[in-house]
Q: What sequence folds into this?
Protein backbone atom coordinates (compact mmCIF):
# COMPACT_ATOMS: atom_id res chain seq x y z
CA UNK A 1 0.00 0.00 0.00
CA UNK A 2 1.31 3.47 -0.78
CA UNK A 3 0.07 6.67 0.79
CA UNK A 4 -0.13 9.73 -1.40
CA UNK A 5 -0.33 12.35 1.32
CA UNK A 6 2.46 13.94 3.36
CA UNK A 7 2.71 14.50 7.11
CA UNK A 8 0.14 12.04 8.37
CA UNK A 9 -0.09 11.23 12.03
CA UNK A 10 -2.05 8.23 13.37
CA UNK A 11 -3.60 8.95 16.76
CA UNK A 12 -5.74 7.09 19.31
CA UNK A 13 -8.80 9.17 20.13
CA UNK A 14 -10.89 9.34 23.27
CA UNK A 15 -14.05 11.22 24.30
CA UNK A 16 -12.21 14.54 24.38
CA UNK A 17 -12.07 14.34 20.56
CA UNK A 18 -15.82 13.60 20.30
CA UNK A 19 -16.70 16.90 18.59
CA UNK A 20 -14.03 16.53 15.90
CA UNK A 21 -14.85 12.84 15.31
CA UNK A 22 -18.59 13.57 15.09
CA UNK A 23 -18.06 16.48 12.69
CA UNK A 24 -15.84 14.34 10.43
CA UNK A 25 -18.29 11.45 10.39
CA UNK A 26 -21.21 13.82 9.77
CA UNK A 27 -19.67 15.52 6.75
CA UNK A 28 -17.84 12.38 5.55
CA UNK A 29 -20.99 10.29 5.34
CA UNK A 30 -23.51 12.95 4.31
CA UNK A 31 -23.67 11.49 0.79
CA UNK A 32 -23.96 7.86 1.91
CA UNK A 33 -27.23 6.49 0.51
CA UNK A 34 -28.65 5.35 3.86
CA UNK A 35 -27.91 8.75 5.42
CA UNK A 36 -29.78 10.42 2.56
CA UNK A 37 -32.74 8.07 3.09
CA UNK A 38 -32.78 8.53 6.89
CA UNK A 39 -32.03 12.22 7.37
CA UNK A 40 -33.35 13.54 4.02
CA UNK A 41 -32.68 17.22 3.20
CA UNK A 42 -29.41 18.50 1.78
CA UNK A 43 -25.89 17.41 2.70
CA UNK A 44 -25.41 20.15 5.31
CA UNK A 45 -28.60 19.05 7.07
CA UNK A 46 -27.56 15.38 6.96
CA UNK A 47 -24.05 16.18 8.22
CA UNK A 48 -25.51 18.15 11.15
CA UNK A 49 -28.01 15.42 12.07
CA UNK A 50 -25.46 12.62 11.93
CA UNK A 51 -22.89 14.63 13.87
CA UNK A 52 -25.47 15.07 16.67
CA UNK A 53 -26.23 11.36 16.82
CA UNK A 54 -22.55 10.44 16.67
CA UNK A 55 -21.62 12.94 19.39
CA UNK A 56 -24.16 11.34 21.71
CA UNK A 57 -22.92 7.87 20.80
CA UNK A 58 -19.33 8.85 21.57
CA UNK A 59 -20.28 10.59 24.80
CA UNK A 60 -22.20 7.59 26.09
CA UNK A 61 -20.11 4.70 24.85
CA UNK A 62 -16.79 4.03 26.53
CA UNK A 63 -16.50 0.80 24.56
CA UNK A 64 -15.54 2.31 21.22
CA UNK A 65 -11.94 2.02 20.17
CA UNK A 66 -11.23 4.97 17.86
CA UNK A 67 -8.21 5.58 15.69
CA UNK A 68 -7.77 8.73 13.66
CA UNK A 69 -5.44 10.16 11.03
CA UNK A 70 -4.41 13.78 11.39
CA UNK A 71 -2.73 16.07 8.89
CA UNK A 72 -1.32 19.36 10.14
CA UNK A 73 -3.22 18.83 13.38
CA UNK A 74 -6.56 18.35 11.62
CA UNK A 75 -8.54 15.13 11.82
CA UNK A 76 -9.03 13.81 8.27
CA UNK A 77 -9.85 10.13 8.77
CA UNK A 78 -11.33 7.96 11.46
CA UNK A 79 -12.12 4.29 12.14
CA UNK A 80 -14.10 3.23 15.19
CA UNK A 81 -14.53 -0.33 16.43
CA UNK A 82 -16.45 -2.02 19.23
CA UNK A 83 -14.94 -4.92 21.16
CA UNK A 84 -16.72 -8.32 21.25
CA UNK A 85 -20.09 -8.10 23.01
CA UNK A 86 -20.06 -4.29 22.97
CA UNK A 87 -21.53 -3.38 19.60
CA UNK A 88 -24.97 -2.43 20.89
CA UNK A 89 -25.25 0.51 23.33
CA UNK A 90 -26.26 -0.22 26.91
CA UNK A 91 -29.59 0.89 28.43
CA UNK A 92 -28.54 4.39 29.52
CA UNK A 93 -26.70 5.11 26.25
CA UNK A 94 -29.80 3.92 24.38
CA UNK A 95 -31.99 6.37 26.34
CA UNK A 96 -29.70 9.28 25.52
CA UNK A 97 -29.52 8.26 21.87
CA UNK A 98 -33.32 8.09 21.74
CA UNK A 99 -33.53 11.58 23.24
CA UNK A 100 -31.09 12.97 20.65
CA UNK A 101 -32.86 11.17 17.81
CA UNK A 102 -36.28 12.39 19.01
CA UNK A 103 -35.04 15.97 18.79
CA UNK A 104 -34.57 15.40 15.04
CA UNK A 105 -38.34 14.87 14.70
CA UNK A 106 -40.64 11.84 14.79
CA UNK A 107 -40.23 10.82 11.11
CA UNK A 108 -36.42 10.86 11.37
CA UNK A 109 -36.57 9.00 14.69
CA UNK A 110 -38.72 6.33 13.11
CA UNK A 111 -36.32 5.94 10.16
CA UNK A 112 -33.31 5.80 12.52
CA UNK A 113 -35.00 3.04 14.53
CA UNK A 114 -35.76 1.07 11.38
CA UNK A 115 -32.14 1.39 10.18
CA UNK A 116 -30.71 0.43 13.56
CA UNK A 117 -33.17 -2.45 13.97
CA UNK A 118 -32.31 -4.03 10.62
CA UNK A 119 -28.55 -3.75 11.11
CA UNK A 120 -28.73 -4.97 14.72
CA UNK A 121 -30.69 -8.06 13.63
CA UNK A 122 -27.76 -9.07 11.45
CA UNK A 123 -25.13 -8.76 14.20
CA UNK A 124 -23.34 -12.11 14.38
CA UNK A 125 -23.98 -14.13 17.52
CA UNK A 126 -20.35 -15.26 17.55
CA UNK A 127 -17.82 -12.98 19.32
CA UNK A 128 -16.57 -10.37 16.84
CA UNK A 129 -14.95 -6.96 16.61
CA UNK A 130 -17.47 -4.65 14.98
CA UNK A 131 -15.87 -2.06 12.71
CA UNK A 132 -17.53 1.23 11.89
CA UNK A 133 -18.04 3.94 11.22
CA UNK A 134 -15.02 4.52 8.97
CA UNK A 135 -14.64 7.73 7.03
CA UNK A 136 -12.00 9.80 5.25
CA UNK A 137 -12.56 13.43 4.31
CA UNK A 138 -13.92 13.56 0.79
CA UNK A 139 -11.16 15.60 -0.87
CA UNK A 140 -8.54 13.15 0.46
CA UNK A 141 -10.14 9.87 -0.62
CA UNK A 142 -8.33 7.44 -2.89
CA UNK A 143 -4.92 8.35 -1.43
CA UNK A 144 -4.38 5.41 0.87
CA UNK A 145 -5.65 6.89 4.16
CA UNK A 146 -8.56 4.45 4.50
CA UNK A 147 -6.22 1.55 3.70
CA UNK A 148 -3.82 2.73 6.39
CA UNK A 149 -6.64 2.64 8.97
CA UNK A 150 -7.87 -0.77 7.73
CA UNK A 151 -4.41 -2.36 7.71
CA UNK A 152 -3.90 -1.30 11.31
CA UNK A 153 -7.37 -2.55 12.26
CA UNK A 154 -6.98 -6.00 10.70
CA UNK A 155 -3.49 -6.21 12.20
CA UNK A 156 -5.09 -5.85 15.63
CA UNK A 157 -7.71 -8.50 14.73
CA UNK A 158 -5.00 -10.92 13.64
CA UNK A 159 -2.88 -10.26 16.71
CA UNK A 160 -5.66 -11.65 18.91
CA UNK A 161 -7.29 -14.05 16.42
CA UNK A 162 -10.59 -12.12 16.39
CA UNK A 163 -13.42 -12.30 13.86
CA UNK A 164 -14.16 -8.96 12.16
CA UNK A 165 -17.57 -7.68 11.09
CA UNK A 166 -19.03 -4.52 9.51
CA UNK A 167 -21.95 -3.07 7.57
CA UNK A 168 -21.88 -0.76 4.58
CA UNK A 169 -24.27 0.92 2.17
CA UNK A 170 -21.74 1.59 -0.61
CA UNK A 171 -20.87 -0.96 -3.33
CA UNK A 172 -17.41 0.64 -3.74
CA UNK A 173 -16.80 0.21 0.00
CA UNK A 174 -17.65 -3.51 -0.36
CA UNK A 175 -14.73 -3.78 -2.81
CA UNK A 176 -12.53 -1.73 -0.49
CA UNK A 177 -13.22 -3.96 2.54
CA UNK A 178 -12.82 -7.14 0.45
CA UNK A 179 -9.17 -6.19 -0.02
CA UNK A 180 -8.69 -6.61 3.73
CA UNK A 181 -10.25 -10.06 3.94
CA UNK A 182 -13.92 -9.19 4.56
CA UNK A 183 -16.55 -11.13 2.59
CA UNK A 184 -20.27 -10.49 2.19
CA UNK A 185 -22.37 -12.65 4.54
CA UNK A 186 -25.72 -10.89 4.13
CA UNK A 187 -27.62 -8.18 2.34
CA UNK A 188 -30.81 -6.29 3.23
CA UNK A 189 -32.41 -3.07 2.08
CA UNK A 190 -32.75 -0.24 4.58
CA UNK A 191 -35.50 2.19 3.56
CA UNK A 192 -35.12 0.96 -0.01
CA UNK A 193 -31.30 1.24 0.00
CA UNK A 194 -29.22 -1.95 -0.46
CA UNK A 195 -26.82 -2.57 2.44
CA UNK A 196 -24.27 -5.33 2.94
CA UNK A 197 -22.96 -7.23 5.96
CA UNK A 198 -19.35 -8.39 5.84
CA UNK A 199 -17.37 -10.83 7.98
CA UNK A 200 -13.66 -11.40 8.23
CA UNK A 201 -12.65 -14.82 9.57
CA UNK A 202 -10.20 -15.09 12.44
CA UNK A 203 -6.58 -15.51 11.34
C1 LIG B 1 -14.42 3.93 2.16
C2 LIG B 1 -13.35 4.94 2.57
C3 LIG B 1 -13.18 4.97 4.08
C4 LIG B 1 -12.02 4.56 1.92
O1 LIG B 1 -11.04 5.49 2.32
P1 LIG B 1 -9.94 6.01 1.25
O2 LIG B 1 -8.94 6.83 1.98
O3 LIG B 1 -10.60 6.62 0.09
O4 LIG B 1 -9.31 4.60 0.86
P2 LIG B 1 -7.97 4.28 0.06
O5 LIG B 1 -7.47 5.51 -0.64
O6 LIG B 1 -7.05 3.60 0.95
O7 LIG B 1 -8.51 3.22 -0.98
C5 LIG B 1 -9.30 3.71 -2.02
C6 LIG B 1 -10.06 2.58 -2.60
O8 LIG B 1 -11.27 2.49 -1.87
C7 LIG B 1 -12.35 2.44 -2.77
N1 LIG B 1 -13.31 3.49 -2.41
C8 LIG B 1 -14.43 3.21 -1.73
N2 LIG B 1 -15.17 4.32 -1.60
C9 LIG B 1 -14.47 5.32 -2.18
C10 LIG B 1 -14.72 6.70 -2.36
N3 LIG B 1 -15.86 7.28 -1.93
N4 LIG B 1 -13.79 7.45 -2.99
C11 LIG B 1 -12.63 6.88 -3.45
N5 LIG B 1 -12.36 5.57 -3.30
C12 LIG B 1 -13.27 4.80 -2.67
C13 LIG B 1 -11.86 2.61 -4.16
O9 LIG B 1 -12.11 1.36 -4.78
C14 LIG B 1 -10.38 2.86 -4.05
O10 LIG B 1 -9.71 1.95 -4.86
P3 LIG B 1 -8.37 2.37 -5.68
O11 LIG B 1 -7.30 2.47 -4.67
O12 LIG B 1 -8.17 1.24 -6.63
O13 LIG B 1 -8.68 3.66 -6.35
C15 LIG B 1 -13.72 6.37 2.07
O14 LIG B 1 -13.93 6.30 0.70
C16 LIG B 1 -14.93 7.00 2.73
O15 LIG B 1 -14.79 7.69 3.73
N6 LIG B 1 -16.15 6.80 2.19
C17 LIG B 1 -17.37 7.42 2.72
C18 LIG B 1 -17.78 6.84 4.02
C19 LIG B 1 -18.07 5.37 3.86
O16 LIG B 1 -18.83 4.98 3.00
N7 LIG B 1 -17.43 4.55 4.70
C20 LIG B 1 -17.53 3.11 4.56
C21 LIG B 1 -18.82 2.57 4.99
S1 LIG B 1 -18.92 2.46 6.76
A:
Amino acid sequence: MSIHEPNLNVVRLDRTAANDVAALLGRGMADNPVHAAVYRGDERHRARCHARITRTLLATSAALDIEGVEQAGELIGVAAAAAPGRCQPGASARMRLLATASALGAPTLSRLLEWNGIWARHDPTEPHVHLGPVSVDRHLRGRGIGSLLLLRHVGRLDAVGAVGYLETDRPEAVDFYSRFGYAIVGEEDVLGVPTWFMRRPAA
Observations:
- Residues 8-200 form a domain with the Aminopeptidase fold (CATH 3.40.630.30).
- Residues 150 and 180 are 7 Å apart (CA to CA).
